[in-house]
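User: I'll paste a sequence; please echo it back and then give the predicted structure.

Assistant: Echoing your sequence first, then the prediction.
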Amino acid sequence: MTTLAHGTDTLTRDALTVLQPGFPGTTAPDWLLRRVGEGLASVGLFGRNIDSPEQLAALTAQLRSERDDILVAIDEEGGDVTRLEVRTGSSFPGNHALGAVDDIELTRAVALELGRRLAECGVNFNWAPSADVNANAGNPVIGVRSFGADPGLVARHTAAYVSGLQSAGVAACTKHFPGHGDTAVDSHHDLPRIDVGLDVLHTRDLAPFRAAIAAGSRAVMSAHILVPALDPERPATLSRRILTGLLREELGYEGLIVTDGMEMQAISATYGIERGSVLAIAAGADAICVGGGLADDETVVALSDALVAAVRSGELAEERLADAAARVRALAAWTSDAAGASGGTPADPEVGLVAARRALRVTRSAGYAPSAAGAPVHVAAFSPVANIAVGDETPWGVAAELERLLPGTTTDSYTGADAGADALAAAGERRIVAVVRDEHRHGWMAAAVDALLAARPDTVVVEMGVPQATPRGALYIATHGAARVCGAAAAEVIVGA
């Protein structure tokens, strides 16, 4: 049963209700449980909070012992962005792989199975899917998180993903509104700007969000991006024109609007998280996501106090805060009613690997011949710096699976101007498997592959990012993502399984 501490006034309770904070550790700290008792209605989970499905289920049960309708949110896109399997790599390919297959029933099935696993652990709110159209091949933060560059493809797969996830009783949160695909800047570090006209925005970037709304997406996440055609002054997260005028009034969206992480530099370095949170709620956001970097009671208190002070000063209408809190509670009620929604649907634990296999695009040179049966190889992983959304905790590549299939296989990571020469020296007589990620975005990586192919034309190239570079190598495999299952599917092809 929901419990609320006596003496918590309505205004403070509403201010707590609109926050979605994170916290450290694999059990809920006392301060968090206390705030839940005072009105906090949501928490956000990250990789640091998860050791195993059993531990996660115990954590969510602990939270529900304080408040039975609490929203437990997670950033679980599958593919490169996984929290549920942060230390092993995901059992599901990401959006780009699903877009490459272009089978909406497969996308729905993958989202359903992912949702089922979240629900089994007590997670009922997923900050996914990404509905961004990957219009800029140099995008440093979206890339394989997008279904693709075609708005129609992205729209139909976004709708299928929303449908599948919510069929499992887990609320979808379609992101990053009004579209983060045409950016060359990562909003974790700075404020991106999209300079296109309204016609492009409506036909390209907004199409997937219309599809998500039609599919019943329970939440939409705002982007920390400046879109001058919509609002020349404020980023989308803080823009009434965008959140209320466009999303609510023009597109007719009635669900929850959630901000992207407020500690991201696009907001925190410009407005500060307290001021930014007040502006976001005033603009039409209903929930403040914070906790990826700031995960403590002081942050919760500071944001709650800022919202209360803004109401008391007249800067933020009390009715707007109350409406935002009501939308949070409405979503919590939906998740309670939807719990166990997929209970009658058989589990499909292999659907992720099936999808990863179907997503492969394989090119063989005319003279290609597989290695001798069982011959070990050297896996050279050319590793770019991971963006913050993906993180650097999650393993990626094909080495682990090739080591299992080809005992004696060696591996190492390389970066920089000498990467190719270093990989050649380490390989010895073994065939080289060069693993790249967005080769087209990294000149040093392309140079390393050039060096390998000049010296060893039998090199296998595996592209685990967006496959924009020309296929080359004796065997070229584009996986459309770096999830564990993508690596497993590629390894099967390399060994001829």
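The chain has a mean pLDDT of 94. The longest strand covers residues 171-177.
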